[in-house]
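Batch job 17 of 40 flagged for manual review because the log was empty.
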Amino acid sequence: MGRPSMAAERTEQIMQATGRCLRKNGLAGTTLERVAEESGLSRSHVRHYVGNRDDLLRGFAGWLYTGYQAEFIDRIAAAPDREKLAIMMDYLFSSGFLPISDDDTVIRELITAGIADEGIRSTMQDHYTRAIQAVEDAIAAEHPEVTSGARRTVAYGLWCLAMGNSMMAELQLPVASGGLVRTAAEALLEKVSHGSPPGTASSPAAAPMR
């Protein structure tokens, strides 16, 4: 395999520097000048390879989520059906979201940026839509009898549980680092697997959720 192009090397260098800059300085403090200083390149080189600040942040969002694509979405797609659900649950409620990493801080900054920037927002919408679809696919592999509507509802619920708990963990809320969120997620899965659509009241004869 040939040596990576200079453009690819420099872009990677700039993307890594952008992540460090976002962690240290936040969104408002991530300027081309600071990214250039962090990367060891000149500001003109940063502009040459990635464009202006808006271009930089949009490119960074796509670069960051490429890794998560392989780590979560592609891994579920490639796994045997009997393993998909376990992979999904472990990622959402253990390895992927906990413990809190430097990337979590960066993602919070990107969410803030995406509120105002359509390009960043579109990248994040696309990633999260595909991630939720991967969760739904994992549920379908284990519970093919469940309707697509119920699977979609539970998939979104599980994703929100994981994201919300991650935010609480970042605030160092002690309960967030325990197993309660996974217990809640398993209860949601158990409810739908027993044919009771989420949001409906259980009948008196139904077994209580754990």
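Reviewer: the log was empty due to a logging misconfiguration, but the result itself is present. Residues 200-210 have pLDDT under 50 and may be disordered. Unflagging and moving on to job 18.
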